[in-house]
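Lab notebook, bench 4. Still working through the backlog of constructs that have no structural model yet. Next entry is a single chain of 624 residues. Request: give me the structure tokens for it.
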Amino acid sequence: MSKPQPGTTYKPTEYDNEDKMKMTSKTVDISTTSDDLTASLSTIVSTNNHTNDTKISKPKRFWNKFINFIEVKQSETSENSDENSSKSILQAYLYNDDLAPVKRKERVWSWNHYVFFWVAGAFNVNTWQISATGLQLGLNWWQTWICIWVGYSFVAGFLVLASRVGSNYHISFPIASRIAFGTYFSIWIVINRVVMACVWMGTLSYLGGVCVQLMLKSIFGNDLNTRIHDTIGSNNLTNFEFLCFMIFWIVSLPFLWFPPHKLKYVFTVKSAITPFAAFGFLIWTLCKANGHLALRSLNENGPINKVTLAWSVIRSIMSALDNFSTLILNAPDFARFSKTSKSSIYSQLIALPFLYAVISLIGILSATAAYTLYGINYWSPLDILGRYLDHKTAGNRAGVFLISFVFAFDQLGANLSGNAIPAGTDMTALLPKFINIRRGAYICACISLAICPWNLMASSSIFTTALSAYAVFLSAIAGVIFADYFVVRKGYVNIFHCYTNKEGSYYMYNKWGTNWRAVLAYIFGIAPNFAGFLGSVNVVVPENAMKVYYLNYFTGYLISAITYVILVYFWPITGVPEDSHLIKDLKWIEHEEWIEVEDFAIQRDAFERYSDETIIDYTEKDSV
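Model written out:
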């Protein structure tokens, strides 16, 4: 197979021009006919419509109108405007506006926007507690801090690798997953990500509700939980807590309306105000403690032996990868908006570990300062702020309100970037005829409410462990995608084949649209970690199984990647450049190129009609 060059521009053939001339000629003839003929044609059309309407029952007419009302109208999926109004479920699944490659005018994220994005992501209540894992495992504060540097450096590396397909080909995660797993089996891969997005959105919304609780308590008093009559009758939720959760949830809804490329302004504002609140909170806590830090109080279990120390280091490093497994997987969803091929690479590679190291150090210092005041290790800043309200001074109440307000906005931004937008994007790949990114984000918000996150958070240790353990499944997916893109295809993707189910297209693989090599590799990547996954949720398993599980992300990622390469070696796939060698050729991005997709809708329409890439002119190319 010869390798087509990206950066395509479709030039209509003579056949297309003749069709258009004929259509224009017919239109002119009709418009210049006599009034009598026009009236006759109108009468015929009216009569036919009336006849058709009488044949359709009223319930069916109502149902058809309802379906037409809720259907997502596609603006540029075809040259023919009539086809834009309605598409079959399969046609919409294959190609729709939300999953189309991102055009130049929407690729507005430069390197600084990715820095702002991760500032917004790092400074939130959930990640504030990342340093607690190592300390609870017996490490001291500086050992934990080094592990955080190492762990999030690995995260940055995996994230940048996953971003490249989105950055260069401007496609989202659902489309990128079709390349490795197949056009139809990718549905299962997308469902995995949607489930986690909905659960995490509920979790972060609950934490946002806690911020609202502190804001209201700082205004109306610290006893609102008892002053507001409790009628729910749950051990995990009171009327006041539910009220605060709903306030945060409702305030979040308008932000889901905006398209992803316009949310850069939200992340910019969030990245500007959140660090001030975080450092302000740290300084305030240090002042209250008169500068005293109880660093020794962080290790409640005392000294540990060398073997235990080694495994504690490993688990502390792996906790970073476990917590980031969902964002690593859907990295193309944001990388596709990058202005250049490098906008999303170096900025994330440097900013991400630095920012998470900074926020973890703030968490360590705040916890040790608070210990000198209250004799308890508080790993959440919200717990410390709640204690400040025990002293009802005007300064305490004002400080708690302002910091809680910024933290609430911070939780909102984290929900948008990590959950709502990825879930919305993924849902467009599941049922795009009726769901676009905006509707998908709102569906995710509704599901996050329905899962009752207050019940999940009531057992926080098991809940957090179970969520992290889900990395067992996501790491195997990420490993297959890495091996397929870098090792097998050397960075080459034909985006026309990403949006078709025609027989013989590269990413259909077979009539079931499934790459069985990827599925087997995915299962092989899960298998070694599955016993440990059960052990993490309190099922009794052998100790060695847990030790394998402690390396879960690396284990799943590497085993699935290696298995996939071996299977492809013995059972080759199509869509691979002819001049590359699977094993000997180590130039993993040799065939990766930046492409332009300004006329992609027309090009794809021609490709679908003719199934012949020779009709596409590849001479116009805009490389970055």
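Notes after review: The chain is about 65% helix and 0% strand. The chain has one domain: 111-570. Flag for follow-up if needed.
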